[in-house]
Amino acid sequence: MKEQLINIAEYIESLEQRIASLEKANIALQEVINNLQDQIENNENVNANANNNVDEDVDVDVVMPVEPEIPEEPEVEPETQEIPETPEEPEPQPEPQPQPQPEPQPKAEPMVGQAVTDIRKAISLGDRFLFQRELFAGKGEQMQQVLDDINSLTSLDEAISYIGQFGWNTDSTTYELFVNVLKRRFNH
User: Fold this and answer.
1) Are 143 and 96 in contact (CB under 8 A)?
2) 159 near 178, Cβ under 8 Å?
3) Is 177 within 8 Å of 127 (Cβ atoms)?
4) Which of 74, 75, 44, 26 is nearest to 184 (CA)?
5) In this structure, are residues 185 and 112 in contact, taking their beta carbons and an 8 Å threshold?
6) How buried is 125 (Cβ within 10 angstroms: 0-12 exposed, 13-18 middle, 19+ buried)?
7) Residues near 125 by Cβ (< 8 Å), separated by ≥ 6?
8) Hey, where are the domains in the chain?
9) Contacts made by residues 32-35, CB under 8 angstroms, sequence distance 24+
């Protein structure tokens, strides 16, 4: 019985080490995601400036993110210990301390930004996938047609009226993000 308790304690300890390692990897991945988001925003700003200054040549270096190294966990094999002949009370094991949970980062409010003549230029790659998945049920061709239609409209009011036909949830974050893109298209 005591041997089983020792094996269980060692197994719990190895799980705690793995959890700590995964938390470190999660933090590293979050930093990579944040860096990618910053690069996307910077590239969008550079592209917007390049579209406004056609006569100027702008060289944009694309920086590929470095994937974080996730340390491999060594396999922990439980050691077998001899059980003493005389019965002893097991040493009390310290209770595992709960690991602090990283605080969720607040979602940045979408920025309206500079006006564009083509709504596609106002939509980041990540938002394009989000809109296609959540607003257009994965139908890329339908999304392209709607974007073409919106580009042909002349005001934000017309665009909001136009998208009203789709019955989207106007309280959703995705809908609000799409309306912010419309505002950028119509410079509001």
Assistant:
1) no
2) no
3) yes
4) 44
5) no
6) exposed
7) 40
8) 1-70, 119-185
9) 32/65, 32/66, 32/67, 32/68, 35/65
The model's pLDDT over 1-38, given as tens digits with 9 standing for 90+, comes to 777 778 787 888 777 887 777 777 777 777 778 777 77
Using one digit for the tens of pLDDT, what is the confidence trace for 119-128? 888 888 999 9
Average pLDDT over residues 34-56: 66
Please give the angle made by the CA atoms of 117, 121 and 123, to the nearest 5 degrees: 125
Which two tokens mark 97? 């301390």
Q: Helix or strand or coil: residue 124?
A: coil
Contact 159, 182 (CB under 8 A): yes
In residues, how long is the chain? 188
Name residue 9's amino acid: A
The answer to whether the Cα torsion of 28, 30, 33, 39 is positive or negative is: negative
Contact 175, 167 (CB under 8 A): no
Phi-psi region of 109 (alpha: psi -120 to 50; beta: other; left: phi over 0): beta
pTM: 0.41
Helices (H), the chain: 2-52, 125-134, 140-151, 156-163, 173-185
Type of residue numbered 38 = D
Each residue's pLDDT tens digit, 81-103 = 555 565 566 666 767 676 666 55
**Distance in angstroms (rounded) separating the CA atoms of residues 164 and 160:** 6
